Description:
Elements: H1 25-35, E1 44-48, H2 54-63, E2 67-72, H3 75-84, E3 90-94, E4 107-113, H4 122-132, E5 133-146, H5 150-158, E6 162-169, H6 171-180, H7 182-192, H8 198-204, H9 211-218, E7 221-230
Parallel strand pairs: 1-2, 1-4, 2-3, 4-5
Antiparallel strand pairs: 5-7, 6-7
Helix pairs in contact: 1-2
Amino acid sequence: MNYGYVPLPDQNQVINLRAEDANYRYYIQLYDHVAGAVDLRDLKVLEVGSGRGGGADYIKRYLKPEIMVGLDFSENAVRFCNEKYNVEGLSFEGGNAESLPFIDNSFDVVLNVESSHCYSSMNAFLAQVKRVLREGGYFLMADFRRKEALEGLRESLNESGLTLIKETDITQNILEAMELDDERKTALIKKSIHRSLVGFFLQFAGTSGSLIHERFISGETIYLSYVLQKGTA
């Protein structure tokens, strides 16, 4: 449940996927871009806003953290994930991004993909991220914002107490994925969704002609990825 990501011609980011994962390549590639910024092997990783769990499942199976925890506000999503995935070291819990149900200094990495734009307080979320991260731990994030909201996002990140290591504009990568997957997504929605709701789901999925797709094209909305780190005492 993300808009996907496709490496541009000058970017060497091709990943080898198992046959059963190939149909989800565009969505996996966004997770790989974000999570691949840090070597996760043998670390404890938390994804806030894990949704239906595909990203957390990919990370645990391919990037090999010791522990991968997905947290989501939706009890239905958490229930679905715990029923669907049976991977050692992978678990899902319910909770609020602005009040994380974990003790201080409990994770090496916190991950957040296409979720933060839904939060009521970015500052409250970032305070929680800093609290649950161990010293030297990383916060890896990707999300979109309207152009006029970028200054507020950057101000929140600068005031979070985390050190900004990298900001990357990946709007073109996102657009490429949206366009390459447009025909499949549109057909799937029209086939699977009651016709009274098709218009809503076409907008939600970012299909061609949707508001979010047009805003990415016009530059009104920008998609960014971030790497931040919690300092040591």
